[in-house]
UniProtKB/TrEMBL annotation:
It is found in: Cell membrane. The chain crosses the membrane at residues 7-32, 38-55, 67-92, 98-116, 123-140, 146-167, 179-202, 222-246, 253-271, 277-297. PANTHER family: INNER MEMBRANE TRANSPORTER, S-ADENOSYLMETHIONINE_S-ADENOSYLHOMOCYSTEINE TRANSPORTER. InterPro entries: AA-Vitamin_Transporters, EamA_dom, EmrE-like. It comes from Streptococcus infantis. Belongs to the EamA transporter family. This is Permease of the drug/metabolite transporter (DMT) superfamily.
Amino acid sequence: MNEKTKAYLAALAFSTIIGFSFLFTKVALGFASPLTNLAHRYTVAAIVLFILQQSKLIQVKLSKEDILSILPMSLFYPLLFFMFQSFALQYISSSEAGILQALVPIITLILASIFLKEKTTLVQKFFLFLSVAGVVYIFLSKGASFGAGTAIFGYVLMLGSVFSNAINNILSKYKGGQYKVLDLTVVVILVGFIVFNCLSLFSHISSGNPMGYFEPLSHVSYIFSILYLGILASIVTGSLSIYAIVRLGASTVSVFGNLGTVLTILAGALILHEPIYSYHVIGATLIIAGILGMNLMRRK
């Protein structure tokens, strides 16, 4: 199996894990705030990495200079990405956030062409927009709208999350050529662990309920969700996405993120028995056609 095929499989696996992560996030948020959820998620990830390092299953050796060089990645993802997203959802609906999130491949394409000199054909651009159109169509069909009644501030915050995601894709491509995939993943995870835990603990202490940090951990379903989010949706996806971006390019891999929308719909139908409507099928078809078209054109 050549490197290009492995990279496509990595992108597909990354999209699959992310697609199902929304289901586990939904379960986890039933027990804890978004900030505490993130704190526990990155605590699990940090503990797993520590165990792997101590057991010699992985070897990570980074100097202070290396860590400082990688830090900008962790600033944009997970820190700014999740912070902007969490606060944006206080002002706009999840459907509106989903529509704006679909803009990530377009922003990534623009930034990649400027900073990474990645080139895409007109046909590839068409398929990229087709994939984005599929996501937007699904959310609009669900009733999302951008009326005057919703807060502009929420849109600005969500666009901050979108740009943070896109910039992280660019940095992943750039830094991936200088460091090992695992080294980049470890720094990002540790920064998320430190910052989210500090913010969560401060939030609980300031509200006069420091034990609130630990309360969700008494629920089995919450622990299971956090394990999925911490191990698969943080460590594994972090490594897979960087691996794929380095070999396929930031603009190409970013389109795979839209596949997560399709898989989220399937997960909801299979596990939560949520209904699938005709607009789901139409939107999913556009998304998959866009992904296949862009990547098939890339091979030619």
